[in-house]
Amino acid sequence: MVNRSLSILYYNTTAMIKKYQSFFVIFLLIVLISESCVSRKKMTYLKHIDKSVDYTGEQTDLWMSVTPSAYKIMPYDNLYIRVVTPDPQWSAIFNADVGTAGITQESAVLSGYVVDVEGDIEIPYVGRVNVAGKTLSEIKTELDSIFKNYVTDAALTVRLVNNNISILGEVNAPGRYMLTKDRINIFEALSMAGDMSHYSNRQKVQLIRPTPYGPVIKEFSLADRSILASEYYYIMPNDIIYALPRQARPFQINSTVWTLFLTTVTSAMGVIAFFRTLNP
Length: 280
Known about the structure:
Layout: H1 2-19, H2 21-36, H3 40-43, H4 61-64, E1 78-84, H5 88-94, H6 105-111, E2 113-114, E3 120-123, E4 127-130, H7 136-147, E5 155-160, E6 164-169, E7 175-178, H8 186-192, E8 200-209, E9 216-220, E10 240-245, H9 255-278
Parallel strand pairs: 6-10
Antiparallel strand pairs: 1-2, 1-5, 3-4, 6-7, 8-9, 8-10
Helix pairs in contact: 1-9
C-alpha cells in the first residue's frame, strides 16, 4: 500500500515537472536577459561627441572655455566668521563661545551669521554688513578693512557653513553631502553618492541650482562630452543633482526570490531522484 502511494506521488511529481518545464526555462531566460542585456551605450560616460565641435586629441578652446566661478552669497546662507587677535579679550568680544571641544559643524551652525532677506548680516559691535552677491574672498577683504577700525593685527576666517549638495534619484547612496573643496565637478559629486545605479538614465540628469531669482533647472546628458563645456559642469553649494530612472526599468528580481526559486527546483529534483531509487 505504501509503495503504491509512493509510486503515485512519484508519477504525479514527475508529470508536474514535465508540464511546467517549459515555463521554468522561459522564466530563467527572461530573468537572465533582463538582468544582463543592458546597452553599453547607455552605461558609458562621455561617449557621444558633439559633431559641431572639432574634437582632436589636443586641448582646444572647448576645454579652456569653462572656468569654475566662485559661489556668491545669497539670503539664508550661513556664514562662519572667526576673528583672532593677539589680545584674547578682543577675540572673545567678536567670537561666540564654542567651549573647549573646538569648532564642529554643529557649533559652526549655531555660531554662524545667517544672511537675512536683504542680504545683510549683523556682527556685534560692528553693525550690519551687506554680503549678498559677494564671494567669500570679497567678504573677507571687506571685513578686514572694517575690523582695522577696532583692532590691529586681526586674522579673519570666513567660511560658508551650508556648503552642502543633495544627490537624489537613481544613485547607489542618495543623500546630502558636504563639499570639502571649492572646485568639484558633476562626476566627482556622483562618486560621493556611489555612482549612478544600474537603472539610471545617464542621458537625462537634472541639476537644480538656487539663484537670487529662483531655482534654475538644467537637464543634460552625461554621455555627451559637451557637458565639459557647460557652466553646470562644476557643482555649487546647495545644488541638487537628480538622477532620473530609465523609462522602462528592467525586470528586477532580488536575491530572496532567486534563493526561494532555486531551493524549490532543487528540492523537486531531489524528490524525483529519491523516487527513482524506489522504482528502478
